[in-house]
Design a protein that fits this description.
The complex is a heterotrimer of chains A (506), B (161) and C (322). Chain A is built from 22 helices and two strands. Chain A is mainly alpha-helical. Chain B has 161 residues and is an all-alpha fold. Chain B has two domains: 76 residues, no CATH class; 65 residues, no CATH class. The N and C termini of chain B lie far apart (76 Å). With 322 residues, chain C is an alpha/beta fold. Chain C has two domains: 189 residues, D-Maltodextrin-Binding Protein, domain 2; 98 residues, 3-Layer(aba) Sandwich (D-Maltodextrin-Binding Protein, domain 2). In chain C, strand 6, helix 8 and strand 7 form a beta-alpha-beta unit. The chains are: A mainly alpha (506), B mainly alpha (161), C alpha/beta (322). Chains in contact: A-B, A-C, B-C. Chains A and B meet through helix 3, helix 8, helix 9, helix 18 and helix 19 of A and helix 2, helix 3, helix 4, helix 5 and helix 6 of B.
C-alpha cells in the first residue's frame, strides 16, 4: 500500500508542478484567500460561480484551482475573524474567540502569523493523511451511520457548552436556542415546512452564514458605535508584527493536536471543517494548564482551531476522491465540476485516472506552501487594516457583508434576516451573552435531529441501538466522562476548599 | 473568619431590587423563556409523534420547553448579575435601517443606488465623519464592489436600474 | 434567366423565413437558464452541457443561474415574473408537476409556463447492497413480505419519485418497507454503501458508479425499456409490475406568452444540440438519456405526468401537513 501511495504521489507531483497547474493553483489559492476574507462570500459560492471559467481547462487543472479556492478560503476566513471578530467562514467562529482578543491587545500580527503557520502545518498533515490513509479512513467514514452521527453530535454539543465563557447555564440556554432556531425550515424527514410564517424563503431555513454575519457583523458594529470613535479602534501595532519564538513554543503542540482532530473529523460525511475546529478548541482548553485564560487571547486558542479547519479541509476530499461520495456542500460542487469535465466521481477514478487523483493531492502540498508564503507576507498589510479609522472601516464592512450575504443565494431577503440577527447580536452584547454556543447549536442541532429520527426509525424505535453500536457507545461514553469531569471536578475542589477552610478556622 | 466576608460584593438590598429587572441575568432569562414559548406556541400544528416515528414537532417543542425551563432557571438564579447598560438608539436604528434600505433597493434599483444609500445613510445616522467624506467613500466602495462581485466573481448583482 | 439570378433567387427564398422581425434579432443578448439547484446538481450539470453547445450554435452566451429553494418555488417565481421574450428559461423536471400537488399555493406551472423542449429522461433504479443475498426484485419483495417493516429503503427526499416509487411498490406488492428519507442522493448512498440501510430507490445518475463498482446491485428500473447503462437489469414491467413504469425527465420551459417563433427556434436549436455526438457523449456519461421532440410533446408529457403523480400522491395519502 505504501509503495503504491508513494509512487502515485511521485507521479502526482510531476503533474502538480506543470507550469499551468502551478499557475492555476496560485490563482485558486489567491481567490480562495480573498473570498475567505470577504464576509459572507465563502468557498461554496465562489466555486459555484467560477465553475464556468474552468470549462476550457483540462480536468486536473480545473480541480486544482477549485480545490485551491476551498482550502485557501480556510486561510482567509481566519483573517477577518482575528481582525474584526467576523468569521469569514463557519469554521472560523472558534478563531474569533482568542484571535480577536489578541488583536485587541495589539498582537494582531502574531495571531495572523500563528494562524498562517498552524494552517500550513495542518494542511501538510492533512494531505499526508489523504496520501497514506485514504482507504482506511474511507472505511471508517462509511461505518458512521445515523446512530454514530447522533453520538458524535451529542459529543459536539457537550463540547460546545464546555467551551463557553461565563455561566454554563447561559451557555446551555444559548445552545438550545440555537438548536430550536435550526428547526426553522423544511423538515427533511417529512417534508413539512416549519415556522415559515408563509414566507417562501424561510421554507429552506436560515443560512448559518446569515446568522453569523448578523450577529457578529452587524451586531458588533452597532455595539461598537455606541462608544466614541477613538475607543472603537484597535490600539497600536507596536513591537514585532510577527509571532515570537515563545508563541511558537506555546502553540506547536496545539497545532499538532488540532491537525490530528481536524483530519479525523474532516472525512466524516456531513460534518465539515467547523466541527473539527469546535472539537480542537475544546480539547485544547481542557488540556491546558490555564483554561480560564482561553477567550482572553492565548495563542493556542488560535493555533488549535486553525489547524483543525485546515486539516479537515484536506481530508474532506477523501470520500469524494476514493468513493465518489461527497461529504459536504463544497465536495458536492467538486463532484459536479468533475462531471462537467466528463469524469464520473466514483471508486474507479483512483485507478482509471491516477494522474487526476494524485495530481490533485500533490497540488495540495503546493497550494499550502503558496498560502503560507502569501499569508505571511500579507500579515503586514492586514495589520494596517486595523489602523483604518473606524468611520471608514465600518461602512466598508457593512457593505461587504450585505453584498456577501446577497450573493449566497441571490436573495435580498437574506439581508433582512441578517438585520434581524444584527438586532439579536446587539441584544446579546448588551446582555453579556456569548454567541458561540448558539451558532454551534444552530449547526449541530439540525444534524442531531435528522440523524436521531433516522436512527430511531431504522432501529424500529429501539433506543438501545446507541449502546449496541460500538462507535456510538464509545462516543457517548466520552461525552458522559466530559460532563462528569466538568461537573464533578469543580464540586470536588469546592468540597476540598471547604474542608481546608474549616481546618483553618479550627 | 470575619475578614473573609467581603462587604463590597453584595450591594445593598434596595439597589439590587431596583437593578432586578434591568439586570443581564433577568433579561436573559426572560428572553430565553419567551423564545421557548414562541416555539411551543407556533409549533402546535406540527405532529409530535412517538419515539419510533418522531414528528416534525417533537424537536422544536421539546426544545422550546427546555428553553423555557432554562430561562426561568436563569431568572431565579441570577443574583448579582450586572445592570444592563442603557441602549443607545441612534447607532442601532441607524445601522439597521440603512441595511434594510439596502436590502430593499439592491434587487429593485441596483447596487449603484443601494450602495451609497447604505453608506451615506449609516454615516449620517451615526453622526460619524463629514458629508463630503461619506459621499467619497460611498462612490469608491460601490465602484470597487461593483468590480469585485459581479465582474470578478460573477455574482448576478444588478448594478444599474 | 442567368444561373447567377437563379442562385440569388434561391438564396433569397432560403433566407426569407429569417426575415421575420422577431427571429432576425433573437438572440442578441445572453440567454439565462434558471435552475432550482445548487451548482453541480443534476439540473445544473444538464443546463451547463446544453447551454455550452447551444451558445456555440446561437452565438450568444448561455448563462446558468442557480436559484435553489422552496422546492423550486424561488426559481419558478423568478422565471414566471420574467419578461416573456425568450431570454429567461426555466430548467426543470417532473418535480415541477409533483410539487404542484404538494404546494398548491405556489406559482401554477400550467398557467405560468409554456413548454420548450424535453432535454433528457432518466430511469429511477431500485438497488440493494451487494453483500445482501437478494438477486432480483422478487427476492427483495419476498423478503420484505416475510418481515414487515424490516426492509429499509433510502430515498433522496419526501417529494422525490424515489419516495413516491417506494410507496407505489408497497401498494402494488403488499410489502411494508421502512422508508428512510435523506436530504439528497449522496447521503442516502453513503448510508446504503456503509451498511446502515438495505436498499435505495434513486435516480440512476448518482448511483451508477457504485453499481458499476459492485457495491450496489440494481434489481429494477422504471423505464419502459431496459436502459443502455444497465443492459442486464430488468424493468419493473418485465418483473411483473407494470404500474411501476414512469418517465423521469428534465426539460425547459419559458414564461407563458413567449412568442411561438421564439419557442420554436429554441426547440429547433436544442434538438440540434441533442443530436450532436459531443453533447450526447457528455449526457450519457451522466446517465442522461437525450430526448428532444417538439414543444407540444413536452406539454403532453408534463400534463400526463402531473396527473399520474397527483393520483399516486392522493392514493398514498402523502401529506406534508403532518
Amino acid at each position: 500500500m505504501w509503495e503504491t501511495s508513494l509512487s502515485g504521489l511521485a507521479g502526482g507531483l510531476l503533474v502538480a508542478f506543470e507550469p499551468l497547474n502551478i499557475l492555476t493553483c496560485f490563482i485558486g489559492v489567491i481567490l480562495g484567500t480573498l473570498v475567505g476574507v470577504l464576509p459572507g462570500v465563502g468557498p461554496v459560492v465562489t466555486i459555484s460561480l467560477l465553475l464556468p471559467i474552468t470549462f476550457g481547462m483540462a480536468p486536473v487543472t480545473a480541480l486544482i484551482m477549485l480545490a485551491g479556492i476551498y482550502y485557501g478560503a480556510q486561510y482567509g476566513g481566519s483573517t477577518t475573524a482575528i481582525l474584526l471578530k467576523l468569521p469569514g467562514e463557519t469554521a472560523a467562529v472558534m478563531t474569533t474567540l482568542d484571535g480577536n482578543q489578541m488583536a485587541k491587545k495589539g498582537r494582531a500580527g502574531a495571531a495572523l502569523g500563528i494562524a498562517a503557520t498552524s494552517s500550513f502545518a495542518a494542511g501538510i498533515i492533512g494531505t499526508l493523511a489523504v496520501v497514506l490513509f485514504s482507504p482506511a479512513l474511507v472505511a471508517v467514514a462509511l461505518s458512521f451511520g445515523p446512530a454514530e452521527n447522533v453520538a458524535l453530535m451529542v459529543l459536539g454539543l457537550v463540547a460546545a457548552v464546555m467551551v463557553a465563557q461565563g455561566s454554563p447555564l447561559k451557555a446551555l440556554a444559548m445552545l438550545v436556542a440555537g438548536i430550536v432556531l435550526g428547526t426553522v425550515g423544511t423538515d427533511i424527514s417529512t417534508g413539512v415546512a416549519r415556522y415559515h410564517f408563509g414566507i417562501t424563503e424561510l421554507r429552506d431555513g436560515i443560512n448559518f452564514v446569515v446568522v453569523a454575519m448578523g450577529i457578529y457583523g452587524f451586531g458588533e458594529i452597532i455595539a461598537n458605535l455606541e462608544r466614541p470613535p477613538e475607543t472603537s479602534k484597535v490600539t497600536g501595532t507596536i513591537g514585532s508584527v510577527y509571532p515570537t519564538r515563545d508563541d511558537f513554543r506555546q502553540s506547536w503542540a496545539a497545532t499538532l493536536r488540532g491537525s490530528f482532530i481536524g483530519a479525523s473529523v474532516g472525512f466524516l460525511p456531513g460534518l465539515g471543517a467547523s466541527a473539527g475546529a469546535f472539537a480542537a478548541y475544546t480539547a485544547e482548553k481542557k488540556l491546558s494548564s490555564y483554561p480560564e485564560k482561553f477567550g482572553t487571547g492565548v495563542v493556542e486558542g488560535v493555533a488549535a482551531p486553525e489547524a483543525a479547519n485546515n486539516a479537515a479541509a484536506q481530508t474532506n476530499f477523501i470520500p469524494l476522491l476514493t468513493l465518489g461520495l461527497p461529504s459536504g456542500a463544497v465536495m458536492a460542487l467538486m463532484a459536479g465540476a468533475m462531471m462537467i469535465h466528463g469524469i464520473v466521481p466514483g471508486p474507479a477514478v483512483m485507478t482509471q485516472r491516477p494522474e487526476l487523483f494524485w495530481g490533485l493531492i500533490a497540488s495540495m502540498f503546493v497550494g499550502n506552501a503558496l498560502l503560507l508564503f502569501l499569508n505571511l507576507n500579507l500579515v503586514r498589510v492586514w495589520v494596517r487594516v486595523l489602523a483604518i479609522p473606524y468611520p471608514i472601516l465600518f461602512p466598508t464592512i457593512l457593505l461587504l457583508c450585505a453584498i456577501g450575504i446577497y450573493s449566497l443565494n441571490n436573495s435580498a431577503f437574506d439581508i433582512l434576516i441578517a438585520a434581524v440577527f444584527g438586532l439579536v447580536g446587539y441584544v446579546f452584547i448588551k446582555l453579556k451573552l456569548e454567541p458561540a454556543p448558539l451558532l454551534m447549536g444552530f449547526v449541530l442541532g439540525p444534524m442531531l435531529e435528522e440523524n436521531l429520527r433516522r436512527a430511531m426509525l431504522l432501529a424500529q424505535g429501539d433506543a438501545s441501538v446507541f449502546l449496541r453500536h460500538p462507535i456510538s457507545a464509545g462516543l457517548l461514553a466520552v461525552a458522559a466522562i466530559i460532563v462528569a469531569l466538568s461537573v464533578g471536578l469543580p464540586l470536588l475542589a469546592k468540597h476540598r476548599r471547604r474542608a481546608a477552610l474549616s481546618t483553618l478556622v479550627d | 473568619m470575619a475578614d473573609i466576608i467581603n462587604h463590597d460584593v453584595a450591594p445593598p438590598r434596595a439597589r439590587r431590587l431596583a437593578a432586578g429587572l434591568a439586570s443581564t441575568g433577568t433579561l436573559s432569562g426572560i428572553y430565553f423563556g419567551a423564545l421557548g414559548l414562541a416555539f411551543i406556541v407556533f409549533g402546535q400544528d406540527y405532529r409530535v409523534g412517538d419515539l419510533r416515528s418522531m414528528g416534525p414537532g417533537m424537536f422544536p417543542i421539546a426544545g422550546g420547553w427546555l428553553l423555557f425551563f432554562l430561562g426561568s432557571l436563569i431568572v431565579i438564579t441570577s443574583r448579582d448579575s450586572e445592570r444592563v447598560e442603557p441602549v443607545v438608539w441612534r447607532p442601532l436604528i441607524g445601522v439597521l435601517s440603512a441595511v434594510v434600505a439596502f436590502a430593499l433597493l439592491v434587487e429593485t434599483i441596483g447596487l449603484a443606488i443601494a450602495g451609497p444609500v447604505l453608506i451615506v445613510g449609516v454615516l449620517i445616522a451615526t453622526g460619524q465623519g463629514t458629508m463630503r467624506s461619506a459621499v467619497i467613500l460611498s462612490v469608491v466602495l460601490t465602484t470597487v464592489s461593483a468590480i469585485i462581485f459581479p465582474t470578478l466573481l460573477g455574482v448576478p448583482l444588478k448594478v444599474f436600474p | 434567366m442567368t444561373r447567377l439570378s437563379k442562385v440569388l433567387i434561391l438564396a433569397a427564398a432560403m433566407l426569407a423565413p429569417l426575415a421575420g422581425p422577431v427571429l432576425a434579432q433573437f438572440p442578441e443578448k445572453p440567454i439565462t437558464i434558471v435552475v432550482s439547484a445548487q451548482p453541480g446538481g443534476s439540473p445544473d450539470i444538464l443546463a451547463r452541457i446544453i447551454g455550452q453547445h447551444l451558445s456555440a450554435r446561437v452565438g450568444q452566451p448561455v448563462v446558468v443561474e442557480n436559484r435553489s429553494g422552496g422546492a423550486g418555488a424561488i426559481a419558478n417565481e423568478h422565471v414566471a415574473r420574467s419578461p416573456a421574450d425568450g431570454y429567461t428559461l426555466l430548467g426543470t423536471a417532473d418535480s415541477l408537476g409533483i410539487n404542484r400537488t404538494f404546494f398548491p399555493d405556489q406559482v401554477d406551472p400550467f398557467t405560468s409556463f409554456t413548454p420548450v423542449i424535453q432535454a433528457m429522461s432518466s430511469p429511477q433504479v431500485l438497488a440493494v447492497r451487494s453483500d445482501l443475498d437478494i438477486p432480483d426484485l422478487q427476492a427483495f419483495l419476498d423478503r420484505a413480505l416475510a418481515a414487515p417493516g424490516a426492509t429499509t429503503v433510502a430515498v433522496p427526499g419526501v417529494t422525490t419519485t424515489g419516495n413516491l416509487g417506494s410507496l407505489m411498490l408497497e401498494n402494488q406488492s403488499g410489502a411494508d418497507f421502512t422508508i428512510a428519507v435523506y436530504p439528497s442522493a449522496s447521503p442516502a448512498l453513503n448510508d446504503v454503501i456503509g451498511g446502515h440501510v438495505e436498499a435505495i430507490f434513486v435516480t440512476l445518475g448518482p448511483a451508477l458508479p457504485h453499481i458499476q463498482s459492485g457495491a450496489l446491485r440494481a434489481i429494477a428500473v422504471t423505464t419502459p425499456d431496459r436502459t443502455p447503462s444497465l443492459p442486464d437489469v430488468p424493468t419493473f414491467g418485465e418483473a411483473g409490475y407494470d404500474g411501476m413504469t414512469f418517465t423521469s425527465w428534465q426539460g425547459y420551459f419559458a414564461p407563458a406568452g413567449t412568442p411561438k417563433e421564439i419557442v420554436d427556434y429554441l426547440n429547433a436549436e436544442i434538438n440540434a444540440v441533442l443530436e450532436t455526438p459531443e453533447a450526447r457523449e457528455q449526457l450519457l456519461l451522466n446517465a442522461f438519456d437525450p430526448a428532444g421532440g417538439s414543444a407540444e410533446d413536452l406539454g403532453v408529457l408534463f400534463r400526463e405526468g402531473t396527473a399520474f403523480w397527483e393520483r399516486i400522491i392522493k392514493e398514498n395519502n402523502v401529506q406534508l401537513q403532518n
